[in-house]
Amino acid sequence: MRTTVGIIGAGPAGLLLARLLHRAGIESVVLESRDRAYVERRQRAGILEQGTVDVLRAARAGERMDREGLRHDGIELRFGRRRHRVDFPGLTGGRSVTVYAQTEVCKDLIALQLKEGGPLLFEAEALGVEGAEGDRPRIPFRHQGREDVLECEYVVGCDGFWGVARKAVPAGVSRVFERSYPYAWLGVLADVAPSHDELVYARHERGFALLSMRSPAVSRLYLQVPAGTEAGQWGDEEIWDELERRLETDDDWRLERGPLTQKSVTPMRSFVHEPMRHGRLFLAGDAAHIVPPTGAKGLNLAVGDVVTLARALAHERQTGSPELLDAYSATCLRRVWQAERFSYDMTTLLHRAPDDTPFDARLQLARLERIASSRAAETDLAEAYTGFPLG
Predict the structure, then answer these.
(1) Catalytic residue among 72, 204, 278, 351
(2) Residue 183: strand pairing partners
(3) Greatest C-alpha distance within the chain
(4) Which of 137, 193, 274, 299 is exposed most, by the fewest CB atoms within 10 A?
């Protein structure tokens, strides 16, 4: 089996890359180890930056997003029972974000790929990457009980943190930067209308809380919990009681309760692998970097990677010049490190670490007061949240 670009992984990075390459007239094959149903129900991110929204529209993959997605023009910060709204368009020259779940993005891109694009093979397990330093790298894979090989001109690893692609980069070439956090997020889905029309980020003495949503009828809520917590340790009413405490305000705002339909725990970590290219192997998305979810950057960083790569591949095809491909890793890493910085800042701004002192608590409040009272500080947050330039 042969193609121009072999893509490992049918998450949002791999699927969007395939879509962008198809529109540029470049052949690709996508290998996904899981079945279609699993990919389409895999709960992950839900916030799309302005740049991500623009890319999906330009790729003609945004019709349902525009119809069903929820445009948000700000977020609310809560601390000391006070509420402060950050106005995105007013601070960024009109930019906003859209609430549209990663599961829905994947459904849209899968449907388009199967209808218009190149082969998308589910339950096709990539076994490794061979010959990345040469002109014809290969991806051995297993599909429908048979082993086969995909021969490519380029391989793109969009197979997440635990995938095989990054393992093909020699240890002597790799540099890893990482940080683990002593807390996690307990996330729940609830069949109840959101209690606020925009996301609420709350800093509380008992820990962080986030009020989000998946639709006008479904709420997505999170609580900071100790690392290692299991979702079953928390009862439904206990979760609602704790959310109520951490989201409390001095006005008449109230948290609406409803049936919880899902519970999960998300570990918190920061991770960057450098470089993001080795020979003809390129890494994108979680295969190359992980951010804590506080800044809503994970999916959007993946989009930035594949937009940069698709542009570079199209440039090489049109001009014969490898200039943009050679710059891929450095170009992406500039954006990655800014997203890592912002995600770290948001995480440490709002979470209480187990070893925090009263001094640390006062610094958090001082940082929040600065955002609430300084247009410059507020603008920095708004610009980062709505998205760094792609490419």
Answers:
(1) 72
(2) 226
(3) 65
(4) 193
Question: pLDDT band at 42, cuts 50/70/90?
Answer: confident
The token pair at 127 is: 């076994």
Side-chain half-sphere exposure of 293, counting CA atoms within 13 A: 23
Catalytic position from the list 100, 181, 183, 201? 201
List the single range of 100-104, 282-286, 332-336 with lowest mean pLDDT: 100-104
Do 249 and 204 form a contact (C-beta atoms < 8 A)? no
Contact 25, 133 (CB under 8 A): no
Mean per-residue pLDDT for 181-200? 97
**What is the sign, positive or negative, of the torsion defined by CA atoms of 33, 30, 57, 94?**
positive
Annotation says 263 is catalytic = no
Question: Which pLDDT score, from 0 to 100, does residue 389 have?
Answer: 81
Question: Which of 100, 273, 293, 351 is labelled catalytic?
Answer: 293
pLDDT at 184 over 70: yes
Q: Answer yes or no: 344 catalytic.
A: no
State the DSSP H helix or E strand holding residue 358, giving kind and residue range, or none if neither: helix 358-373
Angle between the N-to-C axes of helices 12-23 and 298-319, in degrees from 0 to 180, rounded to the nearest 10: 30
pLDDT of 197-226, one tens digit each? 999 999 999 999 999 998 899 999 999 999
Place 391 in a pLDDT band, splitting at 50, 70 and 90.
low
Residues 69 and 225: their CA atoms lie apart, in Å, by 29
Strand partners, 277: 282
What's the confidence (pLDDT) of residue 41? 86
Question: Is 107 part of the annotated catalytic residue set?
Answer: no
Q: Does the pLDDT value for residue 44 go beyond 80?
A: no
The structure's pTM equals: 0.95
DSSP calls for 192-244: S--SSSSEEEEE-TT--EEEEEEETTEEEEEEEEETT--GGGS-HHHHHHHHH
Strand order in the sheet with 175-190: 82-87, 74-79, 199-203, 209-215, 218-226, 175-190, 260-274, 289-290
- Of 22, 204, 289, 297, the catalytic one is 297
- Rounded to whole angstroms, the Cα distance separating 61 from 105 reads 8
pLDDT at residue 13, rounded to an integer: 96
Distance separating alpha carbons of residues 18 and 30, to the nearest angstrom? 7
Catalytic choice (154, 181, 328, 385): 385
On the 0-12 / 13-18 / 19+ scale of CB atoms within 10 A, 263 is middle
